[in-house]
Known about the structure:
The protein is about 30% helix and about 15% strand. The strands form three sheets. Strands 2-1-3-6-7-8-9-10 form an eight-stranded parallel β-sheet. A two-stranded parallel sheet has the order 4-5. By secondary structure, the chain is α/β, with parallel strands linked by helices.
Amino acid sequence: MVVTACANVTAGGKGFSGEIGVHNDDMIPGLRRLATTIQDQGAKAVLQIYHGGRLCPPDLVPNGDIVSASAVPAGENEPVPRALEDGEIKEIIHAYGEGARRAIQAGFDGVEIHGANGYLIHQFFSPHSNHRDDHWGGSLKKRMNFPLAVINEIQKTVGDHAKDPFIVGHRLSPEEPQTPGITMADTLEFVDVLADQELDYIHVSLMNFWSRPRRGLEDTRSRLDIIQDRVGNKVPVVGVGSIYSAEDARSAIQSDVPFASFRTRTYYRSRLGRQNRTRKGFRY
């Protein structure tokens, strides 16, 4: 299975230059060529869909309007996003469904909901970036409402438009370094709920496949082993991170986690005139 790089579901969700878009029907022919190219090599084609939220560069989105769950910047010297209003949140949820519809019409075999790596879905789940006190925040349970609404919208779209079996996966980051931030305890409650959403898999985004919990849980096992033990009997778990060699790959697939993911990415440094560089652990 090949999961593409992330594709923005709205024009205001573009997180980096050269990104795939899935926010307009005019993009369907190009997306179809991408899906066919993957499938012609014998793999399932899965389109990763997302909204960058507060991580979007102002010069890449209409009117420089950076949005998030709350008006909390990602860090020092980062732009302060505008807190989304209730109606705008519902429009973005609908946009995720429309992105899934376009993926179906383009011939993809599935979509992966990118709820990890600090993007908008992650921002709604995180107590660092979500300071709301309405339906979309204020407690751990309410911080789940946005990702669950996105999942529900996509699954409804799949039911309405997909004629063949269509994969729906969800990607998440299990912890954040910030305080307050997502802890392993938060994530275990979240995956308990995700496991009941009829997803085809949960993809755990990590820098290191074997990394251990930072806080919120007294357990010396790896994060992936903990999540696998918690929900692996209900939904397949995919792990990723620091798999650089064949030996790393053997170790990963010999663990209790049933699926391992290998990342391929081009890394740019703008101050070097966009000269291609390969970050350790990524390859062309």
